[in-house]
């Protein structure tokens, strides 16, 4: 497929209203380019702990909209034939209308023809099967080699939003999970994303898993990856919400019922999470964390100790850290 790209130069404050306005005339799926720093929520939903410093926000934004070009070079908008010039004129009219009551900046329109774009499949060229120790991670579009038959295999299609197991923090968690999983393990995966940690725990023999995530898209990602790996629906329950500050989510997840809680998220999220999650752990339960850049190791270990947990082990891979702890068991006084 080929696409016409209509790129508008504007200001960051006008992004939402321009996207909404052009959506009404049939231009959808805006690509946004700006220098606005990520919000706390956006950082919370990412796997990285510290992002590199970006350029200062200059208030400028570029919004790109794509219209599919037919084999004969024609274009359609809302199912009607339209020319490139007509689209530009429609966009200009809408932008001029917005200028009457808000600042939209330059409002210039540039048109380019993209190379062939397969939005769904192009990214697959960057994700191939790989090993995590003796575990083979493989996407659905690749075949299991004859020499790998019979090995532990995780089938996972990450899409464009969730983890694949390639990141060091995920691998650190996997290695720790293997040490503590038993056939009776009840596991809670906070920030489950693609579900990889909970699914692997079930494959390694855990009894049941619950996953929580802030992003509703995680529900479909987890369902797909469960199906790809033969995980029955009753084995893995998904919940959407913030377990740190939402009492309803905490109640739904349950208290003192998990043998293992795993959280592969940000150090800055692990600090407030830890004193809350202690309530979900059974006495003697294991708390496995990662997503921690090395210079934040002390922040997390101090949070673990402050919550009354016993620090068991700190492991490393590259510049990333995993902290494992145990909830202490109540000591009965002698009668």
What are the salient characteristics of this protein?
335 residues, alpha/beta, seven-stranded mixed β-sheet, four-stranded antiparallel β-sheet, 9 helices, 16 strands
How are the SSEs placed, and which strands pair?
Layout: E1 2-11, H1 15-24, E2 31-34, H2 40-44, E3 60-69, E4 75-77, E5 80-82, H3 84-99, E6 108-113, E7 130-132, E8 135-138, E9 153-155, H4 168-180, E10 186-190, H5 196-203, E11 208-213, H6 217-228, E12 236-240, H7 247-253, E13 258-264, H8 267-277, E14 281-293, H9 297-306, E15 309-317, E16 320-327
Characterise this structure.
- The longest helix is centred in the N-terminal third of the chain and has 16 residues, at 84-99.
- α1 (15-24) packs across α3 and α8 (267-277) packs parallel to α9 (297-306).
- This protein is an alpha/beta fold and 335 residues long.
- The model is unreliable at 44-50 (pLDDT under 50).
- The chain contains 9 helices and 16 strands.
- It has a 7-stranded mixed beta sheet, sandwiched between helices.
Brief description of this entry?
With 335 residues, the protein is an alpha/beta fold. It is 27% helix and 30% strand.
Please report the number of helical segments. Answer: 9
Major β-sheet strand ordering: 12-11-10-13-14-16-15
The average pLDDT score comes to 85
Low-confidence segments:
44-50
Shape: elongated
Number of strands: 16
Question: Approximately how much beta-strand content do the residues carry?
Answer: 25-35%
Helix content: 25-40%
Which structural category do the helix and sheet elements fall into? alpha/beta
Radius of gyration: 24 Å
Distance between the termini: 79 Å
What summary fits the major beta sheet? 7 strands, mixed
Order of helices and strands: EHEHEEEHEEEEHEHEHEHEHEHEE
């Amino acid at each position: 497929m080929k696409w016409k790209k209509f790129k508008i130069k504007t200001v960051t404050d006008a992004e939402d209203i321009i996207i909404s306005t052009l959506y009404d005339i049939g231009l959808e799926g805006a690509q946004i380019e700006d220098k606005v720093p990520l919000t706390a929520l956006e950082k919370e939903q990412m796997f990285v702990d510290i992002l590199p410093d970006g350029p200062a926000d200059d208030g400028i934004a570029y919004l790109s909209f794509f219209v599919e070009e037919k084999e004969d070079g024609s274009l359609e908008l809302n199912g009607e034939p339209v020319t490139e010039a007509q689209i530009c004129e429609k966009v200009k009219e809408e932008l001029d209308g917005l200028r009457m009551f808000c600042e939209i900046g330059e409002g210039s329109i540039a048109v380019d023809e993209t190379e062939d774009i397969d939005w769904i499949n192009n990214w697959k060229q960057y994700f191939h099967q790989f090993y995590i120790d003796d575990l083979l991670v493989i996407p659905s579009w690749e075949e299991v080699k004859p020499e790998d038959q019979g090995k532990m295999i995780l089938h996972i299609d990450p899409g464009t939003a969730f983890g694949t197991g390639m990141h060091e923090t995920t691998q650190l968690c996997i290695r720790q999970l293997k040490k503590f999983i038993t056939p009776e393990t009840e596991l809670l995966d906070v920030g489950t994303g693609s579900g990889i940690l909970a699914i692997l725990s079930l494959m390694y023999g855990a009894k049941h898993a619950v996953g929580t995530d802030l992003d509703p898209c995680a529900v479909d990602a987890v369902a797909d990856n469960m199906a790809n790996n033969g995980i029955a629906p009753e084995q893995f329950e998904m919940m959407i919400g913030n377990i740190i500050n939402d009492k309803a989510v905490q109640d739904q997840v349950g208290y003192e019922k998990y043998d293992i809680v795993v959280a592969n998220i940000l150090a800055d999220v692990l600090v407030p999470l830890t004193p809350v999650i202690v309530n979900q752990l059974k006495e003697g339960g294991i708390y496995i964390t990662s997503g921690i850049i090395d210079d934040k190791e002390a922040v997390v270990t101090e949070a673990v100790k402050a919550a009354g947990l016993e620090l068991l082990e700190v492991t490393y891979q590259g510049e990333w850290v995993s902290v494992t702890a145990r909830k202490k068991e109540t000591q009965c006084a002698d009668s």
